[in-house]
Amino acid sequence: MRCTAIRTHICHAYRTNWVFVEVETDSGLVGVGEATLEYREQTVAEACRELIRILRGRDPHDVESFWHDAYRDTYFRGGEVLMTALSAVDMALWDIKGKDLGVPCWKLLGGRCRDRVPMYANGWFAPAKTPDEFAAKARAAVDTGFRALKWDPFGSAWLDLPPAAMDAAMACVGAVKDAVRGRAEILIEGHGRFNVPTAVRVGQELAQFKPLWFEEPLPPENLPGLADVKRRSTVPIAAGERLYNRWQFRDLLALGAVDYLQPDVSHAGGLSELRKIAAMAECHHLPVCPHNPSGPVANAATLQLAACLPNFLWLETMSADVPWRSEITDEAITVADGCMLIPDRPGLGIALNHAAIARHPYEPRDLRHFRGDLTDIRPPGADGWMQTADAAILDKP
């Protein structure tokens, strides 16, 4: 069996566009991956297609050999575009391998440590603006079974956070904490907003609410600064979604800059690389909680890692999504008691519906994080997309 082609499919998803990748073989087997790179979707799709020059004619089972050669032969390597393209093709090759052998990818990655993983919710807050609206949305999300809620309460802040904005953010955090107290964890997202002194001040203010973590308090380029914030903070720090390979994570770990690692399977090198990053984190007795706000293929790949990584702790999930999510793949996700069950279909366990994807073509979108409309993350009519183990929306804890 040999690889013959790489094809890409871009699907509009309201806040962004999903980028799906298929690797074709001369046997007829097709593997699928995801290369969603918000706001650079067309660029990364072309980068995916260019990888066929390295992949054509290779045995798709030789995943490690392809990964090494693709990384080496790019020369100006690293960065989000190459690594996202490489991540997607890596996923697709693992998918082919699993399908060819008739087993889920987790069986090929060391076997299953667990059959389910606890979920935390992102996107649950749309379109809340006031503390009371956030609190009501939080109660509804926890009532449906989520064990933890993540959101960014900082509006359009960039680098600094003036007193009025600080008070508004803490009022929002306090309202959500009161709404879910004793029932769920809270996780505070920073989106790389702050300079060092502001991040320290925000962390000090957040301490009263005992969040599980404060995520990406600094822009991702400053790992020594992140280590400084962590040393001066009593709130645990999470980061890593904008690091792109094991060498960057090695530096993050060497600096002692985080408590929770958040590599993204679509950006940090695919299944092959996340397995290595997680092993390095395990040597430091640190959990991995992968960044996972993208589409159904990335979620399927992240679930394969959740099954087989001993230090995988929390699965990020979008609590609702565009209504057509259920149409564009044969995704079949089941939840129970606040956990997502690990599927056992061969490969990644998911396939694309090309006709459905074509009904939602690419639409350009711009970053919302510093405009003040971050909670407008879902369209009217956004749906829950997960199946349940019983008649409830989600099993209650």
Molecular structure report:
- The chain is an alpha/beta fold and 397 residues long.
- It folds into 2 domains: 100 residues, Enolase-like, domain 1, CATH 3.30.390.10; 263 residues, Enolase-like C-terminal domain (TIM Barrel).
- It is built from 14 helices and 13 strands.
Short description, anyone?
With 397 residues, this protein is α/β, with parallel strands linked by helices. The protein contains 14 helices and 13 strands. It has helices at 41-50, 52-55, 63-74, 80-101, 105-108, 131-143, 163-180, 196-206, 223-231, 246-254, 270-283, 296-308, 325-328, 354-358; strands spanning 3-12, 17-25, 30-34, 116-122, 148-151, 185-189, 213-215, 237-239, 260-261, 315-318, 334-336, 339-341, 387-388.
Order of helices and strands: EEEHHHHHEHEHEHEHEHEHHEHEEHE
Strand content: 15-25%
Our count of domains comes out at 2
Radius of gyration, in Å, reads 20 Å
- The name of the CATH topology of the largest domain is TIM Barrel
> What structural class do you assign from the helix and strand content?
alpha/beta
Distance between the termini: 47 Å
Number of strands: 13
Uncertain runs are: 391-397
CATH architecture of the largest domain: Alpha-Beta Barrel
The CATH superfamily of the largest domain is: Enolase-like C-terminal domain
> Numbering strands along the chain, what is their spatial order in the largest sheet?
10-4-12-11-13
What's the total helix number? 14
Q: Major beta sheet, specifics?
A: 5 strands, mixed
Class of the largest domain, according to the CATH hierarchy?
A: Alpha Beta
What general outline do the C-alpha atoms trace?
globular
- The whole-number mean of residue pLDDT values reads 96
Helical amount? 25-40%
